């Protein structure tokens, strides 16, 4: 799948063929809010459950199916101009990608329940994030497509990079979520 991701420029300066992001850059560690930490740890557990093992030292890399759907970036949101950044187009193998709904992720991130009447624990209820039909039926999401999808994956191989655009600054929300 062709994925777009935003990373700090130093991401490309790593030695070797495999590019990763340190776990220290993951949301819950950079932004020490316990509720966010729980959501990101849960997502890591879901990645292991649905895609396979991951290195505990590496963060998940966030991306979006190309073309990049988030309008806020196109509308020039507040930018952290101190950041030398890159916009990457990367062909990531499907088996490494865990895809979720962009809007529905906020339910998990904010420690809310999708269905308060279900009697499920918070983390069991959050598994609805991967049930596209349920999300659509209950109006938490529209059809999962390029306008509502987001992805996480473990690494990028140099050979997967199809295009690089150097930019000054990252959207502030991506600065928090990215390497």
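Q: What amino acid sequence fits the structure above?
A:
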């Amino acid at each position: 799948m062709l994925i777009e991701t935003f990373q700090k420029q130093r991401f490309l300066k790593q030695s070797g063929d495999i590019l990763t992001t340190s776990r220290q850059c993951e949301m819950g560690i950079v932004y020490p809010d316990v509720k966010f930490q729980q959501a990101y740890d849960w997502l890591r557990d879901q990645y292991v459950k649905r895609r396979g093992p991951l290195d505990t030292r590496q963060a998940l890399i966030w991306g979006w199916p190309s073309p990049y759907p988030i309008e806020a970036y196109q509308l020039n949101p507040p930018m952290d101009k101190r950041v030398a950044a890159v916009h990457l187009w990367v062909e990531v193998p499907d088996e490494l990608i865990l895809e979720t709904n962009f809007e529905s992720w906020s339910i998990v991130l904010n420690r809310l329940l999708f269905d308060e009447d279900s009697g499920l624990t918070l983390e069991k209820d959050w598994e609805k994030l991967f049930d596209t039909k349920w999300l659509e039926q209950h109006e938490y999401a529209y059809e999962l497509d390029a306008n509502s999808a987001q992805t996480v994956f473990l690494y990028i191989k140099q050979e997967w990079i199809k295009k690089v655009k150097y930019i000054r600054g990252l959207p502030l929300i991506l600065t928090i979520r990215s390497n």
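Q: And what stands out in the fold?
A: The helical segments are 27-30, 34-50, 71-74, 102-109, 122-126, 132-137, 172-177.
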